Amino acid sequence: MIGFGLGGVLLGRAADRFGIVPVILAGIAALGLGYVWSGLAPSFWQFALANGLLIGTFGCAAVFGPLMADVSHWFRRYRGIAVATAAMGNYLAATLWSPVVEHFTVTQGWRPTMIGIGIFCVLAMLPLTLVLRRTVPLAEALAEAARGALGAAALGLSPRLLTGLLMFAGFACCVAMSMPQLHIVAYCGDLGYGTGPGATMLALMTGFGMVSRIASGLLADRVGGLATLLINSVLQTLAIALYLGFTSLPSLYVIAILFGLSQGGLVPSYAIIIRAYFPPSEAGARIGLVLACTMLGMAVGGWMNGVIFDITGSYTAAFINGVAWNVAHAALALFLLLRGRGHSTLRPAPVAA
CB neighbours of 261 closer than 8 A, spacing ≥ 6? Predict the structure, then answer.
């Protein structure tokens, strides 16, 4: 995950400079080599290096943030749904790949399974790069650059400050998000329900997260990325707060669904906001920075909420901590939205789609 975050920044910059195809090809090669190396690794440090360096930093990272940035260059009227669709891939993969990996791990062993995943990634992904070979027309790129150059000024903020605020927003929302996602299995065990229902709730969060990403993309095309970010933030705050009042098993299933419907659209919103307020030539790098902060937030939040549980002996304080971080995130999203409306006269004129 650390490699995933760092790789998003590095490869986002590379995509801004060299285009998406070289980055994707490097990612495919890294995934193939990383999984094969993992399957053949004779020691733990080699296994860890293969996962952290090849699979995380140069593999998975190549087809997340950079791909969202590239897809955003091709759409204006339907940019939200396009970015959300690109961002939905990891949720879809988690749903489809888990039973496949489990089957082959049980029947063939984990080493052949890792090698098979690497070979499959190369064979399946290489033909798909053909659809990415076209470049954005020069006239369109120049028009987007002209609009994006005035974007940060439309909020009355410097580009560096706006990027910093979005990075903090990504960190804050994922600290909050980590409480249900990373601790729901343990929480169900703590309540006496066992770990099975918690695993089912986690699957519900992921499945309805896909619905949330598509719905948020459609919403962003209508009301904009900042408004979509605020709406999802408020809904996630309410969903996490519900854990404080309801502990029965049926209610926890319902809350898991509500949480999935709120959290899935947060991450794509950052890409949509960056494309609206920054030049397209900077999209990959800035999206990579914000996404790196979201992953850092998941890591820190998971650890932080675990420490809170260890100190208090209860998840109540941990859920309150999640709500507090989410309130801070919602306040920041509201601040940016109001800044945009207050400085609307500085916005560049829209270009007809």
Answer: 208, 209, 211, 212, 215, 235
pLDDT band at 152 (very low <50, low <70, confident <90, very high): low
Instruction: Identify the domain containing residue 283 by its residue range.
Output: 154-339
- Flag whether 165 is in a domain: yes
| Predicted TM-score of the model (pTM) | 0.80
| Percent of the chain clearing pLDDT 70 (strictly above) | 91
Write down the pLDDT at residue 353: 40
126's CB contacts (< 8 A; 6+ apart) are 28
For residues 52-69, give the mean pLDDT: 88
- Residue written as token pair 């789609």: 353
According to DSSP H, which parts of 19-62 are helical?
20-40, 44-49
SS3 label, residue 311: helix
Helices (H), the chain: 2-18, 20-40, 44-49, 65-72, 79-87, 89-108, 110-128, 138-149, 159-190, 195-223, 225-242, 249-263, 266-277, 283-312, 316-342
Distance CA 166, CA 156 (A): 15
Whole-number pLDDT of residue 350: 38
Matching residue, tokens 């859920």: 319
**CA gap 47, 40 in Å, rounded:** 8
What pLDDT digit, counting tens, does each position of 221-276 carry?
889 899 999 999 999 999 999 999 999 999 999 999 999 999 888 988 998 899 88
The answer to whether residue 146 sits within a structural domain is no
Tell me which amino acid residue 51 is: N
pLDDT at site 351? 37
Q: Are 50 and 37 in contact (CB under 8 A)?
A: yes
Residue 344 resides in a domain: no
C-alpha–C-alpha distance, residues 149 and 138, integer Å: 16
Number of domains within the chain: 2
Q: Is the pLDDT of residue 157 over 60?
A: yes
